[in-house]
Amino acid sequence: MSCSSRRVSVLGHKPTKLIHGLVPFLMVGFLALGGPQLRVVFSATGSLSGDALRGKDYYERTCSGCHSIDQDRIGPRHRGVVGRRIASVEGFEYSPALKMLRGVWQESLLDSWLKDPQLVAPGTAMGFQVTDARDRADVIAYLKEVSKGPKAKPKRHTVSIEEFRFFPETLIVRAGDTIVWKNEDQAPHTATAEGVFDSGHLTRGATWKYLADKKGTFEYICHLHPRMKAKLIVL
Question: Under CATH, which number does the domain 156-234 receive?
Fold first, then answer.
């Protein structure tokens, strides 16, 4: 993450001054010198529970001048930032200060960065500060949400009932998908998983659909012909 709403230059800081300047910061974490690079180490701290919708509104009002979720601007794109290695977006030119940092953008580090980026990485291009803890929590909640990536669209699956068998006999779907059973036999059949779903009698050509809203492995049978068995796995 980087921004330029307010440029601050403190590249002249020497390591000793940097460490002394971090004394009040030790409740959140600390910077330890590691040769020519700085290694960021943060301890777990209690944090506010953020609201992603409020965070989206704040982000669009306040951060979008320099940042975008899916495009590099003055700062790098933010989709996937939570859990991403620092200064790792391919093709983006980071400030030397950020290139010196090692670690990943975890919530505690993001909170400290948004509160005062110059304290985390003196000389970084980002000078804008999110001073309110609630706003920081909301923005981080929003970044966590978009870091999950787009949700897969629900799919529709078909199970054919033919020659007194279910095809396929084992079907793997995701929660939210729809399964449709279609009876191609002359004889009536059912698709019955005790306590989970029951199609009722399906005559030839009839269909029945089920929304897989419960995760698990469900073995089912034809109630009229119990030797017909199949399995539905919902991830």
Answer: 2.60.40.420
**Alpha carbon distance, N-terminus to C-terminus of the chain:** 34
CATH 2.60.40.420-classified regions of the chain: 156-234
- Whole-number Å distance between alpha carbons of 66 and 216: 44
Report the percentage of the chain scoring pLDDT > 90.
61
User: Which string of b and e fits 106-144 if b means at least 16 CB within 10 Å?
Assistant: ebbbbbbbbbebbbbbbbbbbbbbbeeeebbbbbbbbbb
129, pLDDT greater than 70: yes
15-147 maps to CATH 2.30.110.10? no
Sequence length of the chain is 235
DSSP one-letter code for 85: B
**In a 3-state reduction of DSSP, which class is residue 110?**
helix
Per the rule left: phi > 0, alpha: psi between -120 and 50, beta: everything else, 123 is: left
Query: CA 43, CA 25: separation in Å to the nearest integer?
Result: 11
* pLDDT-based confidence at residue 221 (cuts at 50, 70, 90): very high
Angle in degrees, 0-180, between the axes of helices 107-115 and 133-147, rounded to the nearest 10: 130
Poorest-pLDDT segment among 117-121, 125-129, 146-150, 189-193? 146-150
